[in-house]
Design a protein that fits this description.
single chain; mainly alpha; 2 domains; two-stranded antiparallel sheet; 15 helices
């Protein structure tokens, strides 16, 4: 089955554009947080770590709010709530609140990101149709990665943390106003069923997503440092990684809709494992860039493959909750693996961190075997469940 991007319509692309603007503001502020706290506010290195880390902790907890909000009040409400929170966060950074303002701003940003992503993902799937869920999520991810990738360059051009914070306010408000003019056709269930805090049916998909994403903090934190002594190819390799993620999610994001999602899941994992092993070996620059690009290519498929499998067997009124819970596993594993990778790097060096990430890919592959079993039971609420043959 072939899907054309032109068939998705103006509302869909308005949502992707608004998502880009929302994450552009987040990306613009992010590089300036640490210097702002350390030098402008007089915080310690430990304070910097806490200010940076509170974002992930709040985002993790907020997933369990943003999903039900998107299902019960509407996808548009969830997205607008996230954008409003991001706009307020930017305003808080501009207030003379000291370290408290930094904590409050990051807290509001974490909550805003959770609502923005969960609502945008569920809304995009509804606009595109569940049979295009992987393609829709690929385009949403393109908006996110595009905004985060462009943000640091824009922040550097603005030249100050205050300018970056002001841009976050402007971009979030512009995105908010844009989406107020986009109609939503989703109708929440008039009598939503009781929901479980953590449905057992989403544990295995969540674990698979979590183990696959252990590599992200390893690459973000140690790729450049590791490759400094191997031709100093780190910046170019990271650009290849991020660029390949962006391009493949845009142009190849719909493959799990056209092929069996289990096939694209394991192709992605194979590319990721090979890329990590190449990088861990301390290769020359050309091979390092190739390995990083291969890792980025593979990284584009596991999330959309699992989401396509899960969402096609989940009632539409529960898509937001399902996306939120699976995203919470991502936040949890990224947070834990960040600390773990730091410990491994400190005690054993950089190459073992990439080997650790490759080992997590193997574990994710084992867990994925159960996710993509012949029959899958999905249960987000206490409604009667149905057994659905694998796609």
């Amino acid at each position: 089955m072939s899907f054309s991007a032109h068939e998705l319509g103006g509302r869909f692309w308005a949502l992707i554009g608004a998502t880009f603007l929302g994450f552009l503001g987040i990306g613009t502020v992010l590089p300036g947080i640490a210097p702002h706290v350390r030098h402008d506010l007089g915080g310690t290195d430990q304070t910097v770590g806490f200010v940076i880390g509170i974002f992930s902790f709040v985002a993790l907890l907020s997933r369990f709010f943003s999903g039900p909000l998107a299902d019960r009040r509407g996808r548009k409400i969830a997205v607008l709530t996230g954008l409003a929170s991001c706009a307020v966060a930017g305003g808080v950074y501009l207030l003379p609140l000291g370290i408290t303002g930094a904590y409050l701003g990051r807290t509001l940003q974490g909550f805003g990101e959770a609502c923005l992503y969960t609502g945008a993902a569920a809304w995009a799937i509804e606009l595109a149709g569940v049979n295009r869920s992987a393609q829709a999520l690929g385009y949403v991810s393109t908006g996110i990665w595009g905004g985060i990738a462009a943000g640091p360059a824009v922040g550097h051009w603005l030249g100050s943390f205050e300018g970056a914070a002001a841009l976050q306010v402007v971009s979030a408000l512009l995105s908010f106003l844009m989406l107020t003019r986009v109609p939503e056709t989703y109708t929440p269930h008039p009598h939503p069923p009781a929901r479980r805090w953590l449905p057992t049916s989403l544990i295995l998909p969540g674990l698979a997503i979590g183990f696959v994403n252990v590599q992200y903090p390893v690459v973000a934190g140690f790729l450049i440092l590791h490759l400094q002594s191997h031709g100093n190819s780190g910046p170019m390799a990271f650009s290849a990684y991020a660029g390949m993620v962006l391009l493949s999610r845009f142009f190849l994001g719909g493959l799990p809709d056209r092929l069996q999602p289990g096939v694209t899941f394991y192709i992605g994992l194979a590319c990721m494992a090979i890329g990590l092993l190449i990088i861990a070996s301390g290769p020359p620059p050309v091979l390092a860039v190739f390995g990083a690009g291969l890792l980025g290519l593979g990284f584009s498929f596991p999330w959309s493959s699992i989401a396509a499998k899960v969402l096609k067997t989940t009632p539409a009124q529960q898509h937001g909750s399902a996306v939120g819970i699976m995203s919470a596993f991502y936040d949890l594993f990224v947070g834990i693996s960040s600390f773990t990778a730091g410990f491994v790097a400190k005690n054993y060096g950089y190459p073992p961190t990439f080997l650790m990430a490759a080992g997590s890919i193997v574990i994710g592959a084992v867990v994925g075997r159960f996710v993509f079993a012949e029959r899958l039971r999905i249960r987000v609420s206490d409604e009667p469940v149905r057994l659905v043959d694998a796609a």
